[in-house]
Amino acid sequence: GAVVSQHPSRVICKSGTSVKIECRSLDFQATTMFWYRQFPKQSLMLMATSNEGSKATYEQGVEKDKFLINHASLTLSTLTVTSAHPEDSSFYICSARMIQGITEAFFGQGTRLTVV
Amino acid sequence: AQSVAQPEDQVNVAEGNPLTVKCTYSVSGNPYLFWYVQYPNRGLQFLLKYITGDNLVKGSYGFEAEFNKSQTSFHLKKPSALVSDSALYFCAVRDMEGSYIPTFGRGTSLIVHP
User: Fold this and answer.
1) Which stretches of chain A drop beneath a pLDDT of 70?
2) Are B104 and A44 within 8 A, CB to CB?
């Protein structure tokens, strides 16, 4: 199956600093990448959808200036949490969808962000 | 609009017994349906999907799901549960004629007891 690599898997940062999370599709080209946030024992909350070369589409209530998404190529999208605060601590997951043919999305391993 | 309901927060089953994790959906058109599994502190792994054709879909790790159009359901099943099946399971739906963004259910925690 298709592989999506997310890095880092775990990060601890200080309040006020920025953190970048990378999501790469290793063996396919991704038309679209999705970024989710997951709280403990809760479902996935879609934060934004990004298409290669264009601006990301953010879900209602998600601050685009705080969660910067860049989708510079068909295999790489990044999420930068700017000026992180403890309430940003969460599990962030990316997923990628192939250009054509296959309909399901493939997920990265997730990133556990802890802001202290 | 599309939506998914997973009515059970948790399912408990003894090892070796059959398991069922329930999912019902709502879409305007025809559905694409998916099941994913999530282990602690990991991303979601794709298990199986229904696109068209045979209503019984077989997937990874011995799981299968049955598409029932009249009941708008897509329950996940396995004939004999393993302790290692214990995880969080998510059902997802996409409207074939609608948005390419899937909608996920809230997840069901499956606990298989030895």
Assistant:
1) 1, 99-102
2) yes
CA A87 to chain centre: 17
If interface means Cβ-Cβ distance under 8 Å, which residues of chain B face chain A?
Answer: 32, 34, 36, 41-46, 49, 51, 90, 94, 100-102, 104-107, 109
**Which single residue is written with the structure tokens 């329930």?**
B22
pLDDT of residue B17: 98
- The nearest CA of chain A is from the CA of B2 a distance in Å of 14
- Distance of CA A96 to CAs A8, B92, B100, Å? 17, 15, 12
pLDDT tens digits, A61-87: 999 999 999 988 889 999 999 999 999
Please give the Cα distance from A37 to A51 (Å, whole number). 18
Q: Are strands B73-78 and B87-95 parallel, antiparallel or unpaired?
A: unpaired
Which chain A residue has its CA at the smallest distance from B32's CA? A103
The partner residue sitting opposite B44, judged by closest CB among A42, A46, A107, is A107
DSSP string, A64-93: TTTEEEEEEETTEEEEEE-S--GGG-EEEE
Question: Which residues, listed in sequence order, are joined to residue A36 by a DSSP beta bridge?
Answer: A46, A93
| CB contact (8 A) between residue B46 and residue A32 | no
